[in-house]
């Protein structure tokens, strides 16, 4: 439980028990609970959709909410995107922008590492973030126009798969820096950690599977597509800088979430 709370406090702005002293081991061992942290975020996003649907539809029977179509799809999409940034503190967004600035700068390894470590964000990072935000907004709007259940399901599943991909990245690729915040993650993450996270993800998806038998196909394709991207991007990072960094963990999570949303829209 302590490891889960550490992961929750590090990856989100949700602090159930405020912890100020972390050992490297407990910090590293929190990795296996990252999908559960994603589930907490997913429940928050889904709850926001549920509440907005009640507010937007007067005299609506609560049992009918999953089947209704929202009256304000763009507003719901915007609110979910806002929550994604607020509840995570923008930690993955920052990593994504730093990664785009560095890996695609066309510079040598040392310069790439300097760019990614720089707290300032470059033009390419900003443009990339705007583009992926527009993509996410469009996908969420499309889902909101189908049914509230589709939007709630995607809002719940997306952060779970995104953080599963982070665990896979941490456990499958070498850490590129001799030290850093992500070093503890890499040190204490093994193949058994990845297996634990995969099983954990399946357990977290069990309620969806029991409620919606047709969701299995969507979840399976989403995980496969996100995994293919994760391994491709990890190998690309190895070619560029010899491994991955904390910023790349955030980039993998961010892009994987977009992939999942697109899969939900298409299927």
Shape: globular
Distance between the termini: 36 Å
Output the structural class.
mainly alpha
The percent of residues in helical segments reads: over 70%
Oligomeric description of these chains: single chain
Report the sheet with the most strands, covering strand number, pairing sense and barrel closure: none
Number of helices: 12
Average pLDDT over all residues:
90
Q: Unreliable stretches, pLDDT < 50, 5 or more residues?
A: none
What are the secondary-structure elements, in order, as H or E? HHHHHHHHHHHH
Q: Domain count, please report it.
A: 1
Measured on Cα atoms, how large is the radius of gyration?
Answer: 18 Å
Number of β-strand runs: 0
| Strand percentage | under 5%
Short description:
The protein has 12 helices and no strands. It has 267 residues and is mainly α. Helix 8 runs antiparallel to helix 10.
What does this structure look like?
The protein is an all-alpha fold and 267 residues long. The protein has one domain (2-16, 27-266). Helices cover 75% and strands 0% of the residues. The longest helix is centred in the last third of the chain and has 27 residues, at 215-241. The chain starts with a helix and ends with a helix. The model has no long low-confidence stretch (mean pLDDT 90).
């Amino acid at each position: 439980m302590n490891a889960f709370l550490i992961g929750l406090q590090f990856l989100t702005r949700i602090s159930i028990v405020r912890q100020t002293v972390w050992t490297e081991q407990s910090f590293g061992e929190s990795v296996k609970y990252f999908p559960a942290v994603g589930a907490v975020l997913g429940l928050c996003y889904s709850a926001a959709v549920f509440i907005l649907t009640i507010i937007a539809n007067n005299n609506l029977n609560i049992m009918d909410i999953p089947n209704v179509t929202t009256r304000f799809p763009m507003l719901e999409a915007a609110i979910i995107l806002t929550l994604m940034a607020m509840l995570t503190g923008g930690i993955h967004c920052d990593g994504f922008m730093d990664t785009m600035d560095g890996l695609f700068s066309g510079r040598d390894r040392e310069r790439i590492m300097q760019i990614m470590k720089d707290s300032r964000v470059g033009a390419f990072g900003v443009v990339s973030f705007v583009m992926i935000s527009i993509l996410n907004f469009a996908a969420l709007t499309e889902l909101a126009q189908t049914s509230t259940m589709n939007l709630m399901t995607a809002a719940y599943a997306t952060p779970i798969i995104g953080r599963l991909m982070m665990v896979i990245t941490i456990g499958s690729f070498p850490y590129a820096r001799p030290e850093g915040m992500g070093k503890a993650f890499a040190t204490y993450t093994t193949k058994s950690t990845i297996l634990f996270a995969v099983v954990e993800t399946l357990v977290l998806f069990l309620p969806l599977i029991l409620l919606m038998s047709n969701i299995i196909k969507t979840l399976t394709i989403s995980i496969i597509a996100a995994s293919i991207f994760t391994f491709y991007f990890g190998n690309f990072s190895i070619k560029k800088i010899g491994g991955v960094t904390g910023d790349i963990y955030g980039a993998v999570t961010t892009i994987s979430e977009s992939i999942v949303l697109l899969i939900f829209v298409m299927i």
